[in-house]
Specification:
Blueprint (H helix, E strand, L loop, with lengths): L3 E4 L7 E7 L4 E23 L8 E2 L6 E11 L8 E2 L4 E11 L3 E10 L2
Antiparallel strand pairs: 1-8, 2-7, 3-4, 3-5, 3-6, 3-7, 3-8
């Protein structure tokens, strides 16, 4: 699944940082986040079907985040909103909380094809 780079000049502001359209059916197994510096950043992941766009469902559970660190990885076994995607679903990445220090980040979702 493609990663999504998020860029800020002097740090992130909160809010939507972009959308990615899924190209296949799959199960989200994990997420990773890499920052350009050690810091604090939380990225909320949500999903909309093509038909229901722009209405999104939050992933629930642990969002991709950095907490005084430069990289982080976790399985999504505790996500409560969704763990599957279908072709043409739209995934949204939005910064929340109080981001600090990080000015560039890459978020990736590990998705196993179910087709």
């Amino acid at each position: 699944f493609p990663s999504h780079d998020m860029v800020g000049d002097t740090g992130f502001t909160t809010g939507n940082k972009g959308n990615v359209m899924c190209s296949f059916d799959g199960k989200i197994e994990a997420w990773s986040i890499l920052g350009d510096a050690s810091g604090t950043l939380t990225v909320d992941v949500s999903k909309a079907t093509y038909t229901n766009f722009p209405t999104f469902t939050a992933s629930g559970g642990t969002s991709p985040s950095l907490s005084a660190q430069q990289k982080n990885y976790a399985n999504v076994i505790n996500w409560t909103g969704f763990t599957t995607v279908s072709a043409n679903d739209i995934i949204r990445f939005a910064v929340s909380g109080t981001p600090a220090t990080v000015t560039l980040a890459t978020v990736a979702l590990k998705v196993r094809s179910t087709t």
